[in-house]
Amino acid sequence: MSTSPTKLSAPYLPPVNLPSTLQPSSPRAHRTIRRLQSAQSLSSNATSANNPSLISQQRQQQQQRHGAGVQREPLPVQNLSIPPTRTHHRSRSNSDAAVMSVSSSGPSSRRNAAAKRVVAPGISAKHQLDALIRDGPPKGDVAEGLRELRYYVLSDGVDADNDGMSSLRIYIWLILLHAPPLSTDHYLDLIHRGPSPAYAKIRNDTFRTLATDPLFKRRVSEASLIRLLNAIAWRLHDAKTERSQEPGRSTHTATEHGSPELHTVAPLQKQPCPSTATTEGSEAGATEPGIYVQGMNVLCAPFLYAARSEAEAFIAFHRFLTRECPGYVRGAMDGVHKGLALVDRCLSIVDYKLSDYLHSKGMHAELYAFPSVLTLCACTPPLPEVLQLWDFLFAHGAHLNILCIVAQLVMMRDTILSSPSPTKILRSFPPLQAKMIRDLAVSFVPRIPEGVYDELVMHAK
Length: 461
Description:
The protein has 461 residues and is mainly α. It has a two-stranded parallel ribbon with strand order 1-2. It has helices at residues 5-8, 13-17, 30-40, 61-64, 75-81, 83-93, 97-102, 107-123, 126-135, 142-155, 169-176, 184-191, 199-206, 214-219, 222-244, 296-306, 310-324, 334-350, 352-360, 365-368, 370-374, 383-396, 401-411, 413-417, 423-426, 434-444, 450-458; strands at residues 277-278, 292-293.
């Protein structure tokens, strides 16, 4: 193989020819070469290249006298003389581990080391979380992957901009909600069916959904809200119709598509009665799932804001309703009322003085916390803080929303206790501070008795 242009034009050619007379038994021993050069007082004159005193130890001595052999012999020494030029090229093109070790003191290796030091802290959360979602759990261990995902959400949070937008959030929610894949065509089929039995109720609510939030209004149209809520109503209506065809059958498990929890249903008249779209009471009964209740429009809003498509928002919202809080959308919304009672109980456990003061003023959770329980605090701005709070709730359980409401009351403690009439204060909660609320809620968990905590977990089921 002929010599490369880099070798021929290298500025160290005179020193390269000199060691041909001093070739030691180990051509890569730098310090041996320098000791021999110092002992024999070598000059830079290339005429000493024919001195056989030391190179007689080399098997290639005889080839040194041939014209073709003169360029082959110095190659090991040349590797020592100009390692940065060759190793820099090889380490970039071939990623050769051995060459990288030779040039470990060069600028290239220092640059790589510096890059690692800079990247490691920066990518520990965002990029590792991105890799976990993109590539799946390590070694296919789903349980371990979910634990790791929950840890990232609690410790580092979901990376987002000032508007709360994140490229990962909706996929994190879908994973944490165990949402099955959904074909977009299925969502479109529900849309093309036209108005559902709850359509009139939906239209009465959608125009005022987060009406004062400019971020939501800029990103989500009322038409999107109507389509999604109407599709949800059709999906719940179909599940209800299927159950009505099997009167008296009792089952408490979700279908493969994540239908609401089913209860013993009495025989129903064969009519898609709009009364199932209820706000408080329902002719269909308190234990029967409805297809729309007032407040679902606010619950739906964060899903549409965070999702990249209506189909993604649809399956996430449907899974949330039917898996996390089916009791919130039943006829009489019994899950919401159980949650309100738990707000009072948990507040009395965490802060008895504050709880007693509110009760002395006739302020029970039914009067001030109904929207916060029903919407998982989505009724309280700002929306980016709502999304952060929902990251935590989906990761560790939507039942913790009750403790998040208690945390907001504790944060207002001084203002409430100093007010002779706390009704005005609790009429609208102050802006959400997701991280502080989350930290307080987590600190309350060890103080909640086991029986009460079990009720927290099950109140929305």
